[in-house]
Design a protein that fits this description.
With 308 residues, the chain is of the alpha/beta class. It has 12 helices and 9 strands. A 5-stranded parallel sheet has the order 7-6-5-8-9. α1 packs across α5. The structure holds phosphoric acid mono(formamide)ester (CP) and norvaline.
Length: 308
């Protein structure tokens, strides 16, 4: 069973193949109306379950559109409407869904829901974000960096703010695609030590910096994300904002990175909080390319999982 659970759980040659396929898919669609089907219909006759236990705009729409463009059909399920969390085990849910659908994409809270689903499903399972990681996003981000600037290997990525789920998948990608990563944020919100170690063991230079200005020196890519993730308690909002304010990505901070540095944000963004509109809408920002590339990257991931 070929699941796509995390970037460090898929081998580097397969990851590279996914990026190459995503690139081909994007090129093949170039200039065609957005509603057009792909000539090659690899998902014809396939049903894909898209399960959301948290809100989503990009993941939901890009997976849904991607499946349809490849000739398949989707069923979008909200966690609240399912028996999940109402007493039925994840294992039983996985076994039942496997009798109906050919692929499961799930966005959930605790990572154990994803891993248990994958353990008991007879069909591939794709991670559409958990409290801990967000691998589809970072596949799109690697693709986006490379289409603008060439190979990401050896480049310096600076993560600003909270060492959260998206940051974790960047660390996994550092290990697999061989780039360096500097985390710029407060010690209370450091990324998981296990993931820092994983990237360091793979030979990447992983630095932890408390000073944002120092961190961005020599950066080829500066990344921001929300200061309060979906799994964070709203009651922690003010405390997190106070801690994270020094790490806002603004024009003054970007000016200290390499002159051709890119800016990324997985979105949704909170303008004038973690990033200013000046940077989001400025010439170094590739945020909407990242969003578009979710579609192409995930189509490649689904093809990989289904062996198409
Ligand atoms: N970046 C991302 O995953 O966006 P959604 O939460 O809108 O899916
Ligand atoms: N870190 C954010 C990412 C949203 C796509 C969250 O988990 O809410």
């Amino acid at each position: 069973m070929t699941h796509f659970l995390d970037i460090h759980k898929t081998n580097p040659s397969d990851l590279r193949q996914i990026i190459d396929t995503a690139r081909d898919i994007k090129d093949a669609r170039h200039g065609r109306p957005k509603s057009a089907l792909d000539d090659d219909q690899p998902l014809a006759g396939h049903m894909v379950a898209l399960i959301f236990e948290k809100p989503s705009t990009r993941t939901r729409v890009s997976f849904d559109v991607g499946v349809r463009q490849m000739g398949g059909q989707t069923m979008v399920l909200s966690g609240a409407d399912m028996q999940l969390g109402h007493g039925e085990t994840i294992a039983d849910t996985a076994r039942v869904l496997s009798r109906y659908v050919d692929l499961i994409m799930i966005r959930t809270f605790d990572e154990s829901v994803l891993t248990e689903m994958a353990e008991y499903a007879d069909v591939p399972v794709i991670n559409g974000l958990t409290d801990r990681t967000h691998p589809c996003q970072i596949m799109a981000d690697v693709m986006t960096y490379e289409e603008h600037r060439g190979p990401i290997a050896g480049k310096k990525v600076v993560w600003t703010g909270d060492g959260n789920n998206v940051c974790a998948s960047f660390l996994h990608a550092a290990a697999q695609f061989k780039f360096d990563l500097t985390f710029a944020g407060p010690s209370q919100l450091d990324p998981e030590g296990e993931f820092v170690k994983l990237a360091r063991d793979a030979g990447c230079k992983i630095s932890i910096e408390r000073d944002a200005d120092k961190a961005v020196q020599g950066a080829d890519l500066v990344v921001a994300d929300t200061w309060v993730s979906m799994h964070d308690a709203q009651s922690a909002r003010e405390r997190r904002h106070n801690m994270l304010r020094p790490y806002q990505v603004n024009a003054a901070l970007m000016a200290q990175a390499e002159p051709d540095a890119l800016f990324m944000h997985c979105l949704p963004a909170h303008r004038e909080e973690e990033v200013t509109s000046e940077v989001m809408d400025g010439p170094q920002s590739v945020i909407f390319d990242e969003a578009e590339n979710r579609l192409h990257a995930q189509k490649a991931i689904m093809k990989f999982c289904l062996g198409k």
